[in-house]
Structure formats: C-alpha cells, structure tokens
Amino acid sequence: MLIEQGASYAGILGIGAYRPARVVPNSEIVDAIDSSDEWIQQRSGIKTRHIADDSETVVSMSVAAARDALAAARVDARQVDCVVVATVSHLLQTPSAATAIAHELGTDQAAAFDISAACAGFCHGIALASDLVRGGSARHVVVIGVERLSDITSPTDRGTAFIFADGAGAAVVGPSDTPAIGPVVWGSDGEQYDLIRQREDWRDAIAAEAPEIPHLVMRGNEVFRWAAFSMAKVAQQALDRAGLTVDDLDCFVPHQANNRITDAMARAMKLPSTVRIARDIIDAGNTSAASVPLALERMIRDGDAKSGDVALLIAFGAGLAYAAQVVTIP
Ligand SMILES: CC(C)(COP(=O)(O)OP(=O)(O)OC[C@H]1O[C@@H](n2cnc3c(N)ncnc32)[C@H](O)[C@@H]1OP(=O)(O)O)[C@@H](O)C(=O)NCCC(=O)NCCS
Questions:
Q1: What global pTM score does this model have?
Q2: Which EC numbers characterise this protein's activity in its record (predicted)?
Q3: Matching fold, domains 9-176 and 185-328
C-alpha cells in the first residue's frame, strides 16, 4: 500500500471575515431584558454587535469570509481540497453547510463537512486542517467559523440576549516552509455539558403548545468561573507544547466570550504588557465559532498583528469543549 506524503509544516496563509451590515447597540436590546447599557458594558465589555438580516445566511456569510481569506492567501478556490465549517446555527440538519459553501466558492468538488464544537469550533478546525495538510490528505483547507446566533437566542433571555451575535471568519491553511501552527491542546469537560445548551431538542420543541426554534440557555456564572480558572492553564499548555513562553508572544486571541474572562486569563498567564490582546467583543459581541477568526482579522486590519507575529489562540464553550494553539500570523 502507498501512503500520502504531506507537507513538512502547515500554516495559516490568509484570514477573512464577514460582519453583517446591521449594527445593534445595547440601547436597542435593554428594555426586553430589564438591563442597561452600563451593566452590559461593565459585565461583558460589549457596546454593539452585528445582527444578520434575512439575506445574510450561514452560507452567504461563510462564502464572503472565505473569499476574503482566499484573496489574502492568494489561493484560487480550485486549489482548495477541503472545506471545514464550524457552526452550531446552521438550522438545516443535513446536508452540511460546508458542501453548499464549497460549491459556491467554486472549488473542484472539495471534501466538505461541518463540525460541532460550539465556540471552540474554529480552533478545532485549525487543528484538523493542520493535520490534513501535514498528513497529505489535503493541500489547501478552508476553515470557517460562522454563526447566526440571533436565530437561536431569545431576545427576552437576560442571560444571553446581550451576549450572542452573528458573523463569519475564515482561514486558508496550507503548506508552510516553517512550523506555523503549533500542537493543539484540546479536550472536553463533558461532566459540565449542560452549562450552555439548546434548551430542548427539536422533537420536544415541535411538540410544544407554541412551537418555536429552541434557543440557547446558559448558566453564565458557572461558565464564567470554569473559563476564567481553567482556560488559562490550557493556554499555557499550548505555549509549552509549542516550546514557547509568554515572552515569545506578540498577540493573544482568546474566544471573545467576555472581556472579564479575557482579563482573568491574561492575569493568570502573567502576559507581558507588550502582548496585544484581541478585544473584538466590544463591537462584535460573542459570535461563538466566528469569534476567534473575526478577532484575528480585526487585529491584522488594525495593524495590531503583523505578518510573522506569534499569536496564541484559545477557544472554549458549550460541551464544555476547548482548543488552543500557537500560530504565526500570515
Ligand atoms: C452572563 C454574565 C455576564 C452575567 O454576569 P454575572 O456576574 O455572572 O451575573 P449573575 O448571573 O451572577 O447576576 C448578577 C446580578 O446581575 C443581574 N443580572 C443578570 N443578568 C442581567 C442583565 N442582563 N442585566 C442586568 N442585570 C442582570 C442578576 O439579577 C443579579 O442581580 P442580584 O445580584 O441583584 O441578584 C456572566 O456570567 C458571563 O459572562 N458568563 C460567561 C458567559 C460566556 O462567556 N458565555 C459564552 C461562553 S462560550
């Protein structure tokens, strides 16, 4: 039997993003949840978020973000062998969003599938893509994190309505001359799998007296404590596995869950003040699987992350699933 020879190293070759046009400030949502702009900003950091309209679907936002990433990477869609889409808000159970996206992008029948790892999905996708490229199963992989959380968030749920939002981010992963995606540190704490979840499954939702799309529910305080205490350790392990220390870092790009979680992680890791920290949550909210690539794209666009910089990515959420790795900025 012959075996595939992959690339020696894999790296992110380009990053892209799509942010829905409509910007919703806190003032538009506070009445329905008896809250205030001040409370939301102080507790989460969020000032505004982007909310998709009917034309901004999981597929259309993904295609826009992926085209952006392919252009940045200077890779033609026909060179893409695999499309991996991380999402929990593609409401058509089958076929996958990835197959439609691969077709619309103009790939030559690329392998395409969705993964469900909630907010940690994009970092799971980067780990998979890196191994596909190094294992020889694909030469170029498009990894997309995309959500339309507004479809599955109740506007009257005090614990989630101000947090969740919409958008898409994408990365092209391909061969690299140098190691540019470090070893992944990932896992799941299934004992706490109920902390963030779809309220009920589809059969129960449809059987209800007043059927509606089941929305997300979250035990925010417990999620907060888990993330703030456990995720800094995972981030540190990702650095250790890459053979680096905090002094080697240029950028820290954590899942944009809550600015206070980000602060707690930065403190616990003793990040030097020179490390630039992603704060996209302020005007993007928490976009689950899209949050890390959106934050990364923002840092590159704003000049906070330059080509060759070393960035630590970490994402975590429902499951409780998590994944972290060090990457080199393309
Ligand atoms: C959601 C979150 C901001 C709430 O903050 P918190 O400090 O945990 O808030 P609590 O639920 O303990 O409530 C504290 C107080 O605020 C009030 N409160 C809760 N939600 C509120 C809201 N939307 N507006 C105003 N007040 C609110 C509560 O009633 C409570 O009041 P009390 O002290 O008088 O009883 C926070 O738990 C969080 O960010 N959790 C993690 C969320 C997250 O990252 N999720 C995604 C992971 S992928």
A1: 0.96
A2: 2.3.1.180
A3: yes
Looking at the CA of residue 44, tell me the nearest atom of ligand 1: 3
pLDDT band of 5, cuts 50, 70, 90: confident
The alpha carbon of 48 and the centre of ligand 1 are apart by a number of angstroms equal to 17
Residue 123 has phi, psi (to 5 degrees) of -70, -30
Return the CATH class of domain 9-176: alpha beta
Q: Where are the domains of the chain?
A: 9-176, 185-328
Residue 324 belongs to what H/E stretch? Answer: strand 321-328
Architecture of domain 185-328: 3-Layer(aba) Sandwich (3.40)
Give the position, in ligand 1's atom list, of the atom nearest the Cα of 119: 48
pLDDT tens-digit map of 178-221: 999 999 999 999 999 999 999 999 999 999 998 999 999 999 99
Angle value at C-alpha 248, between 247 and 253, nearest 5 degrees: 95
Give the pLDDT confidence of 119-165 residue by residue, as tens digits: 999 999 999 999 999 999 999 999 999 999 999 999 999 999 999 99
Q: How far apart are CA 46 and CA 39, in angstroms?
A: 10
Provide residues with CB under 6 Å of ligand 1. Answer: 33, 35, 39, 43-44, 119, 158-159, 162, 218, 220-221, 223-224, 227, 257-258, 261, 286, 317
